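Recall from the previous lesson that a structure prediction takes nothing but the amino acid sequence as input. Here we apply that procedure to DHHA2 domain-containing protein from Amphora coffeiformis. The sequence below is the only information supplied.
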Amino acid sequence: MRCWWISSFCWVPLARHSQRHVERKSLVQVVHRSTTTATASAASTTPTMISLADFLQTQKQQSKIPKLVIGNPAGDADSILSALCWAYVVSLSSVNNNSNNQNSLLSLSPLASIPRHDLQTQRPETMLLLQWASVPVETVMDVHDVQTHPERFRGAEITLVDHNRLDSTAFPHLDWSVNNILDHHYDEGLYMDTCQTRDIAFQDDKATVASTTTMVAERATSEFSQVPSDVAILLLGTILLDSVNMNPAAGKGTPRDQAAIDALLSKTNWRDGKLVVKEDDPQLWDPETGRPHPSTLFDRLQQAKFDVKFWNALSVRDSLRLDYKEFTPSNGVPFGVSTVLLDWGSFVEKDSFPESITEYMQDTKISFLGIMCTFTSSDSDALNRQLILCATEKPQIEDMTKYFQALGEEDNLQLVETKESTLTMENLVVRIFDQGKVKASRKQVAPLLIRYFETCSSS
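The prediction returns the following tokens.
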């Protein structure tokens, strides 16, 4: 299947990626040509920058990967796309700032933190953005590449994005060292002795940006006179998703997010030919400027992400692992939190529901699992949340319930236990709560759980 892209206002067939690939040395030379004339205009420099797809293909073909950028194991849009874009932005800005060092372009290689198959089948909003950016999923390195050819990645220096604890169990015996962190989650205080940079946008128990891609956008708009459109659409779309289109009721967006959105819209050459767009879709793409309309862009991505048919078709196990994050408090006992984009009533109707939860907890070697059901009402776009506590022992659930109910006003999640809340099955106890404080996402709930396990739990 061949795609079409718009270049100089004319529709032309997009060549297969193998035809578009050029030699590594040529890619470096292309970037250098864009930086040799200091007075070159933004419009003339941006088209000479290599596409994100070509950059990814070049990085993937290296025989040895010295430096990796990795998102968190959940592999959501922010984790995957911030890794791709951060590697691109830092590598190309390094070339611009070190014109004599032709190896700079090869310094950072991004890695998708989930298998490509999962990316294709379980991340519809991420795939939609990659399609708009004309990035074939085959160009993206993933965790399967590490498992298949571990020697290529041995001894790599790691940049963590969208998390600040490397999942060492997923990458054992590779002698990796964490050298940089770019994140917006609770700081677990790790890698102080190895990190050159620890940029963690989390203060006073809350994130100061809604998305790591905001931090990437800040770097991109400061480094480039104009941001390439393929990178810009990935960053813009993810910021809009994570900030819920800067809706104040969601409580996600911050001034930094809004500034990043504005900068991307104004400092991107949307007509540079790198996007796959449809001229007959003026609701999404402005026919005069080529810029996407943010609200329509958000709506398209949100519809893909919250597609009820998609979520209903997933098994219990796939629903849990789709957006799962694991945490290890100072007592060394790990626990997990999964975000599921269905209401609890729909989720519990899935086949083999209790057995699948028990098996998932056994496979991940945890005794407590939090499930955050996040969904929109059928008659409105209002966000709703439910918190489900799953444990192998009933006393722990009762103790944790008391802990949440006793939290002060600032931390209180406004939990209201549902009718017939307690479900007791073999080796599993479940309690279900409606969460009145819908602004509290996993970024706020996880630190509360960490505090419970460190100060209140006797297990």
